[in-house]
Amino acid sequence: MASHTSTPLEYSTKQNEMNILGFWIFLGAEIVLFSTLFASYAVLEGSTVGGPAQGEIFVLKDVLIETFLLLTSSFTMGLALHQMRDNNKTAMLVWTVITLLLGAGFVYFEINEFIHYVHEGLTMQTNAFGSAFFTLLGTHGLHVSLGIGWVLMLIIQILRRGITAVTARKFFIVSLYWHFLDVVWIFIFTFVYLKGLM
Amino acid sequence: MLKRQFPLNHVVGFLLSIVLTILAALVAMQTDFASNIKMWIIGTLAVFQALVQLIMFMHITEGKSGQINIINIVYSVFLAVVIVAGSIWILTTGHAAH
To answer: Quick check: keyword Membrane in the entry (chain A) (predicted)?
Structure first.
């Protein structure tokens, strides 16, 4: 229990505290960025002229697979951070690699889903629904892809330098980013997919 | 280094997320409520799930800046609601009158 009450390593210096606060402020800006994309989608989702409507192309099973992949990766990222606070580098890296595999699985399914939609006749150029849909989903998918690269580079750094105040802070920040992407996906799942399938 | 406890917070958060996701899918696909009522229900479930992530996975309340974090995120969410609800309101109401 002792390490529960003491300050975690990632908060141990003033600089680290400021960096973490700064990243929270960035996440605030990201919320606003995604809100503009959600707003465009909500306004344009009915403009399906010349292409299939949501209910004709969305497949609940595929969406649920993507949702559970991302949800589980958020959980394993949490476990990796938990191991980092235990100063257990091996277990931390194992959970991190599992997180990355789940994230890559998510991107794989999402790309397949996009290919499926293009075959069904919905591209970014088809209509306003297509533009808004691919912009919102593509921005999220790009975030996940960038996150995979970011985590990969941190894994290399932690392998070389171990768990220090600096690498712990960097890993904490990337874990915030990863959980945030899951939060965005919850809203995509609800207000794009479930709404479209209803 | 003392061993920390079993990560109960994360396990509970994960199980809650799964339950909320399945519940939302069931409400959307298997019930006969009017669609606007369904949207309110699954929208509320989504907000709950986001809170689970923020509190149990992202430790938003942690650190010396915990309170600043909450103010920052609450303000961002306020902006998001204004942008989304405002856009829908302005761009989709009153079309029949014109």
So the answer is: yes
